[in-house]
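Before going further, learn to read the protein records used in this course. Taken together, the tokens spell out the fold as the letters spell out the chain. A record is reproduced here so that you can trace the correspondence yourselves:

***
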Amino acid sequence: MLKRAEYYCSRLIVRQKEYKKIQRVHSIWLMQEYANRKEGVANHYSMKEECLGNRRKEKAENYGMMHIFMLYPKGKYDAKDTSFQNLMNVLFKNEHSVEEKLEILRKQFGIKVTETMEEEVEEMSHICMYYEQVGEKRGMQIGKILTQTANVERLMKKQLSMQEAFELLGIEKDMQEKIIKRITNDEKATNEIKH
């Protein structure tokens, strides 16, 4: 994911090539699904100067044009925790209604909530809900592809052709294409390992 973040930041910098002064790019990645060992991690990545020969300091404004923040919110909201990570949890997870989030911001974090902030919290909640639903739908689609691929491979081991397996299982055309890609990619990877 970090390589992808660097790639997107690089693209944003390149798009500024026509401007007289290139602006710094700040990219914040809020990671909702991750391994447990990353829970509560908040990392910042940027270019740093390291003098390897004669010491000469470059002006900081001449380098370090991209700043990447990778945030992994804590698994569950903690009513006593006032850390930045817990704040991210409140804002970007759908454990609370918009009204509850605003109340938590006021009482637990001591944030003076303006009308603009109320609107932004509501908008963020809708965005988070959308991505949760998209993630669930994507997960279900991937699960279906994996299951159907396994079924096709099982039938092929019993000497059926791939097309015969598709017909027997009643698999639709668009799903067939995904399964073919998956099987041929697996075969390529297996051949590469053998050679």
Observations:
- The mean pLDDT is 81.
- The helical segments are 2-14, 84-92, 98-107, 115-157, 162-169, 173-194.
